[in-house]
């Protein structure tokens, strides 16, 4: 019988274990099949667990599982995995070979010992969405058209996973999240959406976000790196920001798990960079 793999637990996009988005990380999953990985992710219960299934020398194959299903890419679990590798091997550059494509990640550790990671997304894309599709999503969210910010129209954005971006007109609307779980799960599954990225613009480069994730068996994600990368591409596509620019996304505040995601857009580079820290969560 194969030994049980070591499961690390880290909170990503935070510098305290009580904040951010918890992720499971298995640095050696070479002996696990998909069913075993899915069972481990369900047992861990976090929105995603990352499994390194092979590779050495700074390039690794990785798979991501939510408690309910495999996903092609997960930003916060990528940050957590890179930090775990840095803690084991030292900070530097790694490449994670995801189902969405290769994702380069750079880690750095400061004088205090805190480690941060910056991922560079796969090539992003931003797509229009039919009004009728938007109306179905709004009904599942129990929102109306009046709840939307007309300056930031609905789009589907991709940077490794697909997200529906809906901008709230007010912070109060964003704070009141009470949606039809089954209806939104059905809607998202039919359109291959990983989360719905609900955002509110505080100022030119500061945003607040909430990410319902029913297709993963999770009501809400406290920090969604993949959505942040896709959102950066969305803002650039709309001309809402002009590179070079750093965008700050605050997420998880309404859940009591504050997270901060830094999104960088560089001129002449399609890929989006997302930066955050990660810290170990004590295990009982």
Written description of the protein model:
- The protein is of the alpha+beta class and about 280 residues long.
- It folds into two domains: about 10-120, Diaminopimelate Epimerase, Chain A, domain 1; about 125-275, Diaminopimelate Epimerase, Chain A, domain 1.
- The chain is about 25% helix and about 35% strand.
- It contains six helices and 17 strands.
- An eight-stranded mixed barrel has the order 1-2-3-4-6-7-8-17.
- A hairpin with a 4-residue loop joins strand 13 (about 205-215) and strand 14.
- Helix 3 runs antiparallel to helix 5.
- It is globular and about 55 Å long.
Q: Which residues sit in consecutive blocks of at least 5 with pLDDT less than 50?
A: none
| Radius of gyration over C-alpha positions, nearest whole angstrom | 18 Å
CATH topology of the largest domain: Diaminopimelate Epimerase, Chain A, domain 1
Biggest β-sheet strands, sense, barrel = 8 strands, mixed, barrel
How many DSSP E strands?
Answer: 17
Q: Secondary-structure map with pairings?
A:
Layout: E1 8-12, E2 21-26, H1 34-44, E3 48-54, E4 59-65, E5 70-71, H2 75-89, E6 93-98, E7 101-109, E8 115-120, E9 125-127, H3 131-141, E10 155-158, E11 162-167, H4 171-175, H5 181-190, E12 195-203, E13 206-213, E14 218-221, H6 225-238, E15 245-251, E16 259-265, E17 273-280
Parallel strand pairs: 2-3, 4-6, 11-12, 13-15
Antiparallel strand pairs: 1-2, 1-17, 3-4, 4-5, 6-7, 7-8, 8-17, 9-10, 10-11, 12-13, 13-14, 15-16, 16-17
Helix pairs in contact: 2-6, 3-5
């Amino acid at each position: 019988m194969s030994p049980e793999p070591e499961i690390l637990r880290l909170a990503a996009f935070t510098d305290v274990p009580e904040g951010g988005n918890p992720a499971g990380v298995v640095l050696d999953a070479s002996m696990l099949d998909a069913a075993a990985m899915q069972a481990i992710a369900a047992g861990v219960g976090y929105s995603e667990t990352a499994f390194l299934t092979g590779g050495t020398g700074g390039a690794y194959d990785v798979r991501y599982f939510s408690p309910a299903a495999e996903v092609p890419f997960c930003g916060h679990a990528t940050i957590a995995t890179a930090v775990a590798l840095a803690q084991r091997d030292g900070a530097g550059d790694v490449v994670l070979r995801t189902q969405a494509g290769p994702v380069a990640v750079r880690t750095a550790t400061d004088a205090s010992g805190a480690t941060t990671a910056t991922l560079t997304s796969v090539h992003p894309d931003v797509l229009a969405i039919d009004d009728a599709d938007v109306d179905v999503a709004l009904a599942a969210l129990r929102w109306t058209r009046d709840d939307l910010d007309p300056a930031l129209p609905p789009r589907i954005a991709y940077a490794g996973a697909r997200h529906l971006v809906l901008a709230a007109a007010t912070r109060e609307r964003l704070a009141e999240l009470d949606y039809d779980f089954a209806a939104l799960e059905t809607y998202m599954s039919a359109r291959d959406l990983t989360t719905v990225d609900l955002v509110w613009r505080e100022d030119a480069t500061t945003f607040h976000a909430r990410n319902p994730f029913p297709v993963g068996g999770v009501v809400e994600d406290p920090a969604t790196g993949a959505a942040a990368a896709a959102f950066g591409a969305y803002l650039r596509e709309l001309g809402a920001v002009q590179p070079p620019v750093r965008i700050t996304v605050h997420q998880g505040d309404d859940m009591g798990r504050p997270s901060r995601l830094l999104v960088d857009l560089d001129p002449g580079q399609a890929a989006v960079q997302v930066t955050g820290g990660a810290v170990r969560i004590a295990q009982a």
